[in-house]
Specification:
alpha+beta; Lipocalin; 4-stranded antiparallel β-sheet; 18% helix; globular
């Protein structure tokens, strides 16, 4: 009898053990209180061929889903959302109906109780506004564009797209060119000194009624530079010191984002050395690093296709951010400070950034003038 009971107990353990991992699939939601506001939060977990995956929606902050990586060990659920540097972690309740956990994002954290709900009881995430893409044969151009010198007292520097409105803040012409043509500043040859010093704010809307994609926005800016700044140039090749971006033998550690394959990438620094990346290709990442962070072009040799989410965190040095990297205040806890950029890329992304020399395309300016009147 004892042997039979033992066998029965083993049978129950075998039966319930594998099923328990499935208990966390479904729709989980709760209210996150942060910065004096209540934000309805919803996380959906699915089993994708034996791998747990999640999507995150902030119901009250607008449309958009963020993919996440799920682990479930010793009764504790942990979900990491690389695109926003966010993590949810907590124990699964005995009845598998709730997770009493903590939401962490950057240096802040807050309690978050998630309850499992049915599809009928689930909050409905806001739908993105209707978006008709620009035709593939659209000739990129801005219908209306206002250009004015930047206010020297305004902090920050950015290129933004909000709906159908394109804008720059505190951007030099050289900076605009790096975005429009996907170049490092070292790949722009000749031109007057003011193109690296004078800063401009631009507000523009495209011709037509559709939503341009990333390449079309860049092409429209290139045409604006030609029309309003009189930019003319020719191409050439030049051997330059570059950084080659490759994949480690162990493979990359990036999170695939399939939620919006035609959407614009999110590439906004939260400060020197804190770089959340969302829905971006390796070309997008390399282009931003060479335009903003590094002192030489970055050549993407990863052969990684598709769009990804991740957050790269490192301690900048004096060679980065145009010499401003060394001016970043030292960390409060040096022992736990993030590693340097090259180590961080290996540890956090599974990639390698290596200095080398290679022939690269350069853009030689033939003509450039101050902008014409609005």
């Amino acid at each position: 009898m004892k042997k039979w009971l033992l066998s029965f107990g083993l049978f129950v353990a075998l039966l319930t053990g594998p099923l328990r991992a499935q208990d966390i699939t479904g729709i989980w939601q709760g209210t996150l209180s942060a910065q004096g506001r209540d934000q309805r939060t919803q996380i959906r977990i699915v089993n994708d061929g034996g791998t747990m995956r999640a999507t995150f929606a902030s119901i009250d902050q607008g449309p958009g889903l963020l993919p996440g990586n799920v682990t479930f060990q010793s009764g504790v659920v942990k979900i990491v959302f690389p695109g926003i540097n966010g993590t949810f972690e907590g124990p699964l309740a005995p009845d598998a109906g709730s997770i009493d956990g903590t939401w962490s994002q950057g240096p802040g954290s807050a309690k978050l109780l998630l309850k499992k709900v049915t599809a009928e009881a689930a909050w409905t995430p806001p739908a993105p506004p209707p978006r008709t893409p620009m035709p593939a044969d659209w000739k990129p151009a801005f219908e209306v564009a206002t250009i004015k010198p930047s206010n020297p007292d305004t902090p920050g520097q950015a290129i933004t797209v909000r709906g159908r409105r394109f804008g720059t803040l505190n951007m030099t012409v050289a900076g605009m060119m790096t975005f429009a043509f996907g170049l490092h500043p070292d790949q722009i040859v000749n031109g007057p000194q003011w193109m690296k010093e004078d800063k401009f704010d631009i507000s523009a809307e495209p011709e037509g009624t559709g939503m341009p994609n990333d390449k079309q926005w860049r092409a429209a800016l290139a045409k604006l530079l030609a029309d309003r700044f009189g930019l003319t140039f020719h191409h050439d090749k030049k051997e330059l010191s570059v950084y080659a971006l490759t994949v480690l033998k162990t493979g990359h550690k990036l999170t695939k984002n399939d939620t919006d394959p035609n959407g614009l990438p999110g590439l906004f620094f939260r400060g020197p050395g804190v770089f959340p990346v969302r829905n971006a290709t390796m070309g997008d990442f390399a282009g931003t690093m060479q335009a903003v962070v590094l002192d030489r072009p970055v050549v993407d040799q990863t052969d990684i296709k598709g769009r990804y989410d991740f957050t790269l965190t490192w301690t900048p040095d004096e060679t980065q951010f145009g010499g401003r990297g060394g001016q970043v205040p030292p960390p409060a806890d040096p022992a736990n400070a993030p590693p340097g950029l090259f180590t961080a890329i290996q540890e956090q992304m599974g990639l390698k950034l290596e200095a080398t020399k290679a022939p690269v395309e350069v853009l030689v300016i033939d003509r450039l003038e101050k902008p014409t009147a609005n």
